[in-house]
Amino acid sequence: MGTLAQRSRLPALRHNCMIRLRRLQPLKSWNTFGIAETAAYGTVCTRVEQLHSLRRRRELHGLPLLPLGAGSNVLFAEPFPGVVVRVRLRGIRCVAESAHEVLVEAAAGEPWHNFVRTCLTQGWYGLENLALIPGTVGAAPVHNIGAYGVEVAEFLDGVEFWEHESGQFLWLPAAELGLGYRSSRLRTELLGRGILTRVRFRLLRRPRPHAQYPTLAALLERERIRHPTPWDIFHAVCRLRRQRLPDPRRLPNAGSFFRNPIVPARQAQELRQRYPELPLFPAGADSVKIPAAWLIEQCGWKGYRRGDVGVAPQHALVLVNYGGASGREILQLAQEIARSVWERFQIRLEPEVLILPAQAWQP
Fold first, then answer.
1. Residue 270 falls in the annotated catalytic set
2. Could you say which of 86, 182, 185, 241 is catalytic?
């Protein structure tokens, strides 16, 4: 599964590192969808030494383990039958540097946007297109987050993963994580087997701005910024996200609910003949990416509301909770949207949001 990290086992447990466990942990404030489900057990981890205590708790043996950062990319469709560990590990440091690049390490609980801003302040470049994405550093490689033409995979060096069964820390290089479009082994086969504790990035010492993404390029052009700096891109991305995406603190949501589908180029061209305005983006030698938001909007869902669930008026890709919606209600709406897209375009939408339990997704 990977090579052992420099620290193979946890340090000796100190009294102030005992973990506090709560039965029937309320999850409403632990997920940005604001879903009022519960977990069988819940705890907050602020020090890696607490993981030792977690393994010793007999009542947790055999139960599913779910690490959670900000809960910004998860939908609880049912009560969680195991232990939810809210990861609050903090810290950012430079591990090594050269004239061209810098190796930066951040604890999994660091807020992602603050980490991106800190990197820019220090003159460490590359992540500026990913500004204002909600969540924590630990979630970034799990979902291989991306925006405006950049993905975390481009700058990821590796992660430290605490394996629950053995109690060991494993160093997993980026090449072993199976990073794909909004996916990784951390989200699939390794989910529930441990907790990601540290993430290491290989960033640039010299700016190499990426401003070709259409909406980003258009904004920079309107603002007459012909040679954008990393800070220009950072601020432009923040403006775009604030304009297009509802703030989950005001209107609970989990950001983009669906992945943008990737289809064979031939299928995309056949669709373009029927829908000349269909936006297409290259996605490999013989594949094309189609914006899921466009497909959903064409099916009439943008701004739709039913009771406390709906689709954001600003962006068809964002499902929202207007108040007391349950996870099942949001899931039902998402499945209806996916079915309507399939019936009209014969394109399957897959959730970007992690749905728990996974088998609840039946579009």
1. no
2. 182
pLDDT grade for 9, boundaries at 50, 70 and 90: very low
pLDDT at 3 over 50: no
Closest CA to 138 of 105, 168, 97, 166: 105
In order of 204, 294, 334, the CA distances from 311 in angstroms are 38, 13, 9
Q: Would you state the CATH architecture of domain 253-360?
A: Alpha-Beta Complex (3.90)
Q: Which residues contact 270 (CB under 8 A, 6 or more apart)?
A: none
User: Is position 29 annotated as part of the catalytic site?
Assistant: no
User: Mean pLDDT across the stretch 90-101?
Assistant: 96
Question: From CA 332, how far away is CA 335, in angstroms rounded?
Answer: 5
Q: Active site residue: 37, 151, 160, 352, which one? A: 352
Active-site entry in 53, 72, 184, 256: 256
Averaged over 73-98, what is the pLDDT?
97
CA distance 43 to 48: 13
CB atoms within 10 A of CB 284: 10
pLDDT score recorded for residue 16: 54
Active site residue 182: yes
Q: What residue segments make up the domains of the chain, in order of their start?
A: 253-360
Split at pLDDT 50, 70, 90, the class of 285 is: confident
